[in-house]
Amino acid sequence: MKEDKDKKLDAFIRKAVIEVGLENPTVDFTRSVLSKIQADAQKSTAFVYRPLISKSVWLMILTAIAGVFVYSIWENPSSEISWLAVSKLNRFAEFNLLANSLNFYISNTVIYSFVGLAFFVWVQVFLLKSYMNKRIAL
Q1: For residues 99, 103, 104 and 108, what is the CA-based torsion angle, rounded to 10 degrees?
Q2: What global pTM score does this model have?
Q3: 47 near 123, Cβ under 8 Å?
Q4: Rg (CA), the chain
Q5: Does residue 50 belong to any structural domain of this protein?
Q6: Which domain holds residue 93?
Q7: Which of 2, 32, 33, 42 has the fewest CB atoms in 10 Å of its CB?
Q8: Are residues 6 and 61 in the same domain?
Q9: How many structural domains compose the chain?
C-alpha cells in the first residue's frame, strides 16, 4: 500500500514538473552571484582592528611611569622641588644601589597615579572590549 502511494506521488510530481517546466537562469546569473560574493567579501575586510592606544604610546607611558617610580624611590621626601639642581647631579656619580635601596619611600602621588592607571587599563580592557565585540557582531 505504501508503494502504491509512493508511485502515485512520484507520477504526480513528474506530471507537475513537466507542466510547469524547469526554470532557466538568466545569462549573467553566475556573474551576478560572484559579484555579490565579492561585495560581501569586501565588506568583511573593511573593518581593521586598531587598538585605541598604540604600542609606542604604551612604551612612552611605561617609561614615564618607571621614571617617576625610580625618582620617587631615591628621592628624599623632604627635599626641595628642584628637578635640575646641579648639587643633585652629583648623586648620580656616587650612586650606590644597596645604600639607596634601604631608604624606600613611595609618595602618595605615585600610588594614586598607579591606581588611576590600573583603573583606566581596566576600563579599556573590559568595557571597550565588550563594546567592540558587540560592534563586530553586528
Answers
A1: -150
A2: 0.28
A3: no
A4: 36
A5: no
A6: 55-137
A7: 2
A8: no
A9: 2
